[in-house]
Amino acid sequence: MPKIHAASVADHRAQQRAALLEAARELLAEGDAAKVTFAEIARRTGLARNSVYKYFPDRGHLLTEVVREAAPRWTRHIQTALAAAGDAPEDRVAAYVTAQLMMVRDGEHRIARATADEQDAAALREGAKAAHRALLDPLVAALRDLGDEDPALTARFLQGFVNAATTALEAGGDYEAVRDRAVRLAVAALGGLAPKAQPG
């Protein structure tokens, strides 16, 4: 019999794990963590239900891992948008707000927000907390480059506009109208960072 190389086994396991996470991500993007059952994930991936337990001991671990693995993708999306925006502070903040709201529009945000019960909510929050910190990093870096004396605090304030816009979108608001207003408010807020003129 041919030998099964360790690398082949590792690759196979990695592919299976990725398929399980992708199935869970798709279910979460539909907006309800209650849909994420090992039976449904097994059905979508064509694996036996018991096989899912070889990769994740329970749903909490699976849900947390989905959010944690999504975070780098979200961060890359924002970093790419900021890089394309150039150096003007107004353009970079506008790009930051727009990039996040695009992800909300496309369903990515529901991955971090979907919950079925308190246990799921705790698991998702654990992963989402790190993800949200990572999302702020590109904006903090941009504000630091602009000479902001407290870029982390400013980033949290600007994120507030994004959070409010997200709530508006989830309530059925028109994407373009909500995005445009959020961008205008966030950009206008930069004016408050300008150093005050010293009396002569």
UniProtKB/TrEMBL annotation:
<dbReference type="InterPro" id="IPR001647">
    <property type="entry name" value="HTH_TetR"/>
</dbReference>
<dbReference type="InterPro" id="IPR009057">
    <property type="entry name" value="Homeodomain-like_sf"/>
</dbReference>
<dbReference type="Pfam" id="PF00440">
    <property type="entry name" value="TetR_N"/>
</dbReference>
<dbReference type="GO" id="GO:0000976">
    <property type="term" value="F:transcription cis-regulatory region binding"/>
</dbReference>
<keyword id="KW-0238">DNA-binding</keyword>
<protein>
    <submittedName>
        <fullName>TetR/AcrR family transcriptional regulator</fullName>
    </submittedName>
</protein>
<dbReference type="InterPro" id="IPR050109">
    <property type="entry name" value="HTH-type_TetR-like_transc_reg"/>
</dbReference>
<dbReference type="GO" id="GO:0003700">
    <property type="term" value="F:DNA-binding transcription factor activity"/>
</dbReference>
